[in-house]
Fold each of these.
Amino acid sequence: DNSTFTVNINSISENKCKIIFTNQSKRIDNHLNIFDLGIKVDENSKGFGYGLYWAKLLEFNYNVINQSIENMDENFSVQHKQINSASADIGYQEFSLNNLIIERE
């Protein structure tokens, strides 16, 4: 389809940022946790059915690796929020990567 995909990057501190990805898609039922293993939003999809479980594995491993960093006051997290549109079938999916460490020169 021809939907718009936007990316916003906000600086949180000297070496941390928040990245937000937003795209238009079919609305996702509120009872679904898209980060659970085996979740398929569309049962007819040709996808593998892993949902976004991999994103929570990334989150966990990123935080384990970065435990050694001093002053790690807030962990990295991946979050999802659906923003409703005027259409009953369409929603905007917002994914945020919070407290992402960025090395700057």
Amino acid sequence: MAEFEMQPNSQVKLYVTISSDAIVGSNVSLDGKFIKKSISYRFTVDLGNSNDLNNSKVRTFSHFLIESGDIDPIMESTTMKCVIRDGHNEQEYQGRKIPGDDDYFVALRSIKLKLA
């Protein structure tokens, strides 16, 4: 699992940017509790203070539905970029795409948050 090292007493934010020809729905969870649902292709989540987030796990999970056409080129060209910032550090992570059905796939990324 990817890790992000946070500076003490910093505000931590997650920025998600999705590029796809598919219809998208996304969820963000922190330690297993859903904190954000979105149908946007670009959104931000304030995760909180780094002192409270030490050893937490943030997970971004997006569902992609294909209205028409071949799923393979759409899945291939789709990107889900997650950026975590704490005011001092910034790290970019790419979502991992997993095929589902002929008209459906998902992308996900899990990141462990740790104090530096």
Amino acid sequence: MVDEFFDEEATKRVAGRAVISAAIALFGGAGVAVVPLASIVAIVLLVIALGVAISAIRTLSHPDAAVIGGLRHVGTAAAAIAIGVALLGIAFRVFVLVHS
């Protein structure tokens, strides 16, 4: 960009953190969905993973995030998968709560 107020390094750091957040949400959601925790605790942790993944997608969807190139798409895909895993985990845990 040719904007005098645009800080490319700061934008790269923010976008890089969003990619890391997407990976954490993915592995955290998968881990909580599998680990034998109390269902109420697991649901809370899965909702947090869901929020982190949504935040990562919103950050990586910003036009300025294009400065990190293809890594942006990898992060978005990881966050989308994390959302799916978290939703499936929440559905399973609610099913367990209702039928126990």
